[in-house]
Structures are given as structure tokens and as C-alpha cells.
Amino acid sequence: MLPAPFEYHAPKTVDEALELLDQLGDEGKVLAGGQSLIPLLKLRFASPGHLVDINKIKDLDYLEERDGTLRIGPLFRHKSAERSSLLASRYHVMADAAPQIADPIIRNRGTIAGSVAHADPSGDWGAVLLALDAELVLRSNSGSRTVKARDFFNGPFSTVLEPNEMLSEIRIPASRSQTGGAYLKLERKVGDFATVAVAVHLQMDDGQVGSAGIGLTAVGPQNIKAERAEAALKGRVLDDAAIKEASGLAAAAAEPKTDHRGSVEYKRNIVRVFTERGLKRAYERARGGG
Amino acid sequence: MHFLREKLRLTGTHIGCDTSHCGACTVLVEGTPVKSCTMLAVQVDGQQVTTVEALAAGGTLHPIQAAFKQEHGLQCGFCTPGMMLTSIALLQEKPDPTEDDIRWALSGNICRCTGYMNIVKAVKSAAAQMTTSAAVPEAATAAARS
């Protein structure tokens, strides 16, 4: 299979890339890791007239904690996340998710930002960013704006990103002490899309839940933030009753569809079970365990 | 992938699913496995690409090839180029991998014949071979560069 003809651009700077995106409008598409976009081009599900390859731009492949914020650059790849000791020690939900993305070869190329901008409702990073209450920096020729992850997704494969904008940075509140997270994913085989996955992030505060983040994968038209479940946990001691209530609310927030991966009831139940397990695991980690 | 096969006539890189699932088309870009169906030729401009054709330098089988042959790590052979290149990258990084390491590293390469048992054996056997003759992989890399 070959993609429809397109023109290829390889700008050397972000400004150059933004200039191009501005000129190209709807016809321009950013190429980061390409692990979703290139198959789409070949299947002719997408046929932009121009590709703006950002891989030749220096310094976009970064992960750093600065001024109370974890910053992720547009070319930071899944493999780097999988191997990051910073994520393993302090951002458990990300460290859990990274090795569960697609397969090892895809992870060599694919990027977190690209995956988020692609906005597949079965994408893993969207749920993770919702749980972490991340912000996304969208930059264009005329400036930049910051949107919350919860306001970013607009439906299947759809976001608030304008054609002339590029997702230039992902920002996550820096992990403090007593935080823990987990990402649980059910997939039929390595590399398959999730049947269901749940991202959990907990900030404990003197034995009570300071804040909780719960993101859901593959159970709706987009990644879902289970806000009622999050709210139900705030200020509570994380006992069995609290976990049970939140898991039920997370399951209720899911909007799954029956398909070859499972029925509505099955998927909703997995959300409940994974939320329960995720909260327990996150809690253990927040207390310095496993 | 089309560039490799149609323009360079290097047909050792096989077209499988053509949508980045199966790993048959895996090549190494600067030593890192990528699925060549999901990378544009223009993106590797100026970079070193290693295909299966680079392995048998000067007519001598690379240890990974010898091991796949010896351990019967293939049946139809369609997935084999990708399997071997992914394995080489693994062995560069982990010269003495466990069975788990091997299965994990190869989880993006699908084989429909062997059930993977002999592939895993072949990679283990190649690892043993390569640690006793460490100079061989460098020879293969040099051949790929030329």
C-alpha cells in the first residue's frame, strides 16, 4: 500500500514548522513518531497534502522536572518513558503505561505527544494524562495557549488542536511525596488495542486522599476522566468502602460498546475491577511500597 | 519498505501486514529496530539502515543466521529477517538475555509457524556464540555501512 501523494517538509526549527503549518492550514499535518499517522496515510484514511516532519528539529526529545512541573517534549518516545528512572520512581502511572503501549518496536519510534494528538479513544496516554491532570501547550505562529487534558479531547480522533497549532509540550504537576499511581490494561495480545484500561493517580495527605485522578481507556468516544469517582475520594480515608464506591462510579462513567473484544457489561465490570485494583496499588505505592 | 524492495531491489525485507502490526518488515535504523512499513524513506536520509542482506558478510552467515538454521528457528521463513534483526538489536544491548527478555523483545514480531520455541532457542544459542566471538557483530555493522 502506498499513501496518496503528499509534499514532505522537514523544518529545522519549531518556528519554521509553525510557519509552515500556518501557511498550509487544513492541508498540513505534523509527523512525529508516525506510528499511527503513516498507517493511516497508507490505508488512505487520511490524505493530507503536506507532512511537516518535526524529527529534524533539535531538542524536542526531552523529559524534565522544572519549577514544579514535569515537562514532556513533542518527540519524547515511548521507549524513553519505559526506561526512565524518574518516571519509575515518581510517576508510577506513566511508568506502568509505557511498556504496555503497542509493542517494543513501535515504542522505539512512537511519541507520547503524537499519541495524545492522534486522540484514539483506545490510546493509553490520554487516560494517563487525564488521571495526572496534565496540561497541554498548543503553539502556533501567533502564540501559545494551554489547555487542560480534560478539555483537549473532542471525541474520537478529534481534539481542540487547530490545524495551525502543534502540541509543543505536555505539563504535569510535579510529583510530591505520598503520591502513587497505576495503569492496568487488558489486551488480547501484545500490540492489540486495549479492551479496557484504567489509569489511577493518588495524592495522599495525612492518611486521607488529597486528590485522586482516574482516566479510562477504550470505553467511550474518547478517553474519559471519571470525575465523580475522583470527587468521591477527595478527603476520604482510602478504606474498602471508599474504594468500592469510587470503583462503582468509575464503572458508571464508562460508555463502552459491545464489540469483538467484549460486551458492554463485561467492559464496565473490568473498569470497576481495575479501578479497585488500581486504587489499591496506587495507595501502596503512595505509602512507599511496591 | 517500498524503497528498499522496489528501488534498491533488497527484497529480503518482507511485506507482511503493511500496517505496523506484524514486524516482518523490521530493519535497523542506526541499530534500532523499526518497522519499515511505518517509516518514510526520506526520514532516514543520512542514517544507517541495516537490512537482512547485510548479515552474511562475505558469504559467511552471521551467528544469528547460523543459530536460526541450526535450531530450526523458522519454517516458512517469512518473519525471519525481522526476527533476526530485532534479535541482533537485543543482543547488542543484552548479550546474555533471559528467555523472558527474548520473548519480550520479540513481542512485536509475529510468527505463524513455529510457536516461537525454536526462535527463542536460536536467539539463546546465538547469544552464546556471539559472546565467545565478540568481533562478529562489528563485521556485520561494517558491511552494512559500506
Characteristic terms for this protein:
heterodimer; A: alpha+beta; Uridine Diphospho-n-acetylenolpyruvylglucosamine Reductase, domain 2; Uridine Diphospho-n-acetylenolpyruvylglucosamine Reductase, domain 3; 3 domains; five-stranded antiparallel β-sheet; four-stranded antiparallel β-sheet; B: 146 residues; mainly alpha; three-stranded antiparallel β-sheet; 3 strands; disordered C terminus
How many beta-strand elements of chain A? Answer: 14
What is the CATH-assigned architecture of the largest domain in chain A?
2-Layer Sandwich
Which of globular, elongated, flat, extended, rod-shaped describes the shape of chain A?
Answer: globular
Topology-level CATH name of the largest domain in chain A: Uridine Diphospho-n-acetylenolpyruvylglucosamine Reductase, domain 3
Largest interface: A-B, 21 and 23 residues
Radius of gyration of chain A: 19 Å
Number of domains of chain B: 1
